[in-house]
Automatic annotation (TrEMBL):
Gene Ontology terms, MF aspect: ATP binding; ATP hydrolysis activity
Family recorded in the similarity comment: Belongs to the ABC transporter superfamily.
Cited Gene3D superfamilies: P-loop containing nucleotide triphosphate hydrolases
Organism ancestry: Bacteria, Pseudomonadati, Pseudomonadota, Alphaproteobacteria, Hyphomicrobiales
Organism: Martelella endophytica
Keyword Protein biosynthesis among UniProt keywords: no
SMART domains linked: AAA
Protein name: Glycine/betaine ABC transporter
Length: 312
């Protein structure tokens, strides 16, 4: 668990308050997305967790231990850090890049090598092909995968991700978001990510922290924030389509009614989002669709009214 207690950060001898009395608790195994307008203090907040910045006041605890009292180098090795431009060492092979922290920690060669292969596999890169390549021989998306693998290498409990998908084209970005989210759940990390992209925060965050002028405006689950913005600023920030965005968080099986006697002609799986289900209903000009299980058996029915009622 990461606990941020009344943390403020002044730059320029107090002339500028980048973070203003911020308190936030990040539960172990969850992902928190920090979002807000440019300059609101997201990156500063994140960088205070691994001591790349020092709070002017307040304190940050990791599992009850004050980070200001831990050795900064050890702290940083125990926290995975993924940044937008990846920061791979250009003259080192992919394998050596991934092995950066294990080497610093003095892992045995065999263990390190096995870990490199395991991680490249995990992030969807073929170790046999990628191990000996140099970073410039990879696409931007592949480099981001390597950066992610490198951050995971020494099995950190915490991952900090600063706009990890910022430099990636939109199609690759969506795929990487899905894959990284699945991996982070599988390996059960506590994640703090900074993003400019509301859809990304909604998709990746178990909770979202919305900041403005160094202050925390709202901290809650995406569903709750979209349903009940704390104030006008948050409401505007979320946009007119917040109700539609919220549909992407609700799964069909949670609102479906009993199956109809006759098939409707179109179907979705129970874990399909209402956003997708509605798109299929509208796209096929149907009043409703079947919800089916993995065997294709009809287990429920979903129509426009059920979808609309769900987002109220
Ligand atoms: N090293 C520094 N010296 C002085 N001011 C700084 C420094 N780093 C950040 N700031 C200022 O602190 C404020 C918060 O910066 P920060 O980078 O945390 O914001 P952000 O929300 O991450 O912004 P962005 O979305 O644009 O990356 C900004 O006004 C910024 O200009």
């Amino acid at each position: 668990m990461i606990t941020i207690e009344h943390v403020s950060k002044n730059y320029d001898d107090g002339a500028h308050l980048a973070v203003d009395n911020l308190s936030l608790t990040i539960e172990t195994g969850t992902t928190v997305a920090l979002i807000g307008p440019s300059g609101c203090g997201k990156t500063t907040t994140m960088r205070m967790i691994n001591r790349l910045e020092t709070p002017t006041s307040g304190r940050i605890l990791i599992n009850g231990q004050d980070v200001s009292k831990t050795d900064p180098k050890e702290l940083r090795r125990s926290i995975g850090y993924v940044i937008q431009q990846v920061g791979l060492f250009p003259h080192m092979t992919i394998a050596r890049n991934v092995a950066t922290v294990p080497r610093l920690l003095g892992w045995e060669k065999a263990k390190t090598n096995a870990r490199i292969d395991e991680l490249l596999d995990l992030v969807g890169l073929d170790p046999a092909v990628m191990r000996d390549r140099l970073p410039h021989e990879l696409s931007g998306g592949q480099r981001q995968r390597v950066g992610f693998a490198r951050a995971l290498a020494a099995e950190p409990r915490i991952m900090l991700m600063d706009e990890p998908f910022g430099a990636i084209d939109p199609i690759t970005r969506v795929r990487l978001q899905d894959e990284f989210r699945a991996i982070l759940k599988k390996v059960s990390k506590t994640v703090v990510m900074v993003t400019h992209d509301l859809d990304e925060a909604i998709k990746m965050g178990d909770r979202i922290a919305i900041m403005r002028d160094g202050k925390l405006l709202q901290y809650d689950t995406p569903a709750e924030i979209l349903a009940r913005p704390a104030n006008d600023f948050v409401r505007d920030f979320l946009g007119q389509d917040r109700h539609i965005k919220r549909l992407s968080l609700i799964e069909a099986h949670t609102v479906m009614s009993a199956p109809r006697p006759e098939a409707t002609g179109a179907s979705v799986a129970g874990d399909t989002s209402l956003h997708t289900a509605l798109a299929i209903i509208l796209g096929n000009n149907l009043p409703g669709i079947d919800v089916v299980d993995t065997t294709g058996a009809r287990v429920g029915y979903l129509d426009r009214d059920l979808v609309f009622a769900a987002q109220e």
